[in-house]
Design a protein that fits this description.
alpha/beta, Rossmann fold, 2 domains, 9 helices, 9 strands, globular, binds 2'-O-acetyl adenosine-5-diphosphoribose, binds zinc ion
Length: 230
């Protein structure tokens, strides 16, 4: 059975990373349009760097939770039959043990040089405009897909969705496109796991409500129980 899993901010909520839309409309005190667009970066790079430097720093205190661990367990069991796509820019899937994670919205722990186009694993701040290790220019930006930019690897995701027997969306509000449309691109069964109703709940074959740390391990147990044993 081929499975595509899409995760959103809800899977990392119980690891202490704030979601985007569950609080007061602000995003850790910032207006998303003032920090998450190419225009914002052009107008005020220091502000945008400060925001992402804070997010990158906050990652140090966060740990993967039972939901991330369950998806790593699923990958260990079914390998390439699982295609894991995340909208999250944290690295909690990797730290839980998932080896193949498609970060469609980029990664906090990656810096992208707009001068030479190289990407570098990056754990430190970018606000002081450090030199790019490849070209030594000072043109590193967070390797994050901002509003108005095209998510990474869309063709691969679309192909995986067409092939999948099951598409599962975990902890995503389904308001940001194109991820919000994946349920329509999927040709197999679809399942939503979310604390609350999302904008797309009615489009799924089945929708379950609850915290990711409970729903995801339970669902993975179900999948593994249904696999033929040798
Ligand atoms: P949102 O913040 O929009 O939605 C979070 C979802 O998680 C909501 O549907 C909640 O009901 C659900 N949720 C919250 N806590 C949960 C829990 N403990 N267990 C299960 N579900 C829970 O986050 P996303 O849908 O991921 O883009 O947002 C999509 C994109 O919008 C992000 O990737 C980001 C933002 O702009 C970029 O950074 C490019
Ligand atoms: Zn460079």
């Amino acid at each position: 059975m081929k499975i595509v899993v899409l995760t959103g901010a809800g899977i990392s909520a119980e690891s202490g990373i704030a979601t985007f839309r569950d609080s007061d409309g602000l995003w850790e005190g910032y207006d998303p349009m003032e920090v998450a667009t190419p225009e914002a970066f052009e107008a005020d790079p220091a502000l945008v760097h400060r925001f992402y430097d804070e997010r990158r720093r906050a990652l140090e205190a966060a740990q993967p939770n039972a939901a991330h661990l369950a998806l790593a367990r699923l990958e260990a069991a079914i390998g390439d039959d699982l295609y894991l796509v995340t909208q999250n820019v944290d690295d909690l899937h990797e730290r839980a043990g998932s080896a193949r994670v498609h970060h469609m919205h980029g990664e906090l722990r990656s810096a992208w040089c707009t001068a030479c186009d190289d990407r570098h694993v990056w754990h430190d701040p970018l606000g002081h405009e450090p030199a790019c290790p490849s070209c030594e220019g000072s043109h590193l930006r967070p390797d994050i897909v901002w509003f108005g930019e095209v998510p990474y690897g869309m063709e691969v995701i679309e192909a995986a969705l067409h092939e999948a027997d099951l598409f599962v969306a975990i902890g995503t509000s389904a308001v940001v496109y194109p991820a919000a449309a994946f349920v329509h691109w999927a040709r197999g069964r679809t399942l939503e796991l979310n604390l609350d109703e999302s904008a797309a709940s009615e489009d799924f074959t089945q929708s379950r409500r609850g915290p990711a740390t409970e729903l995801v391990p339970a669902w993975v147990d179900e999948v593994l129980a249904g696999l033929p044993r040798d």
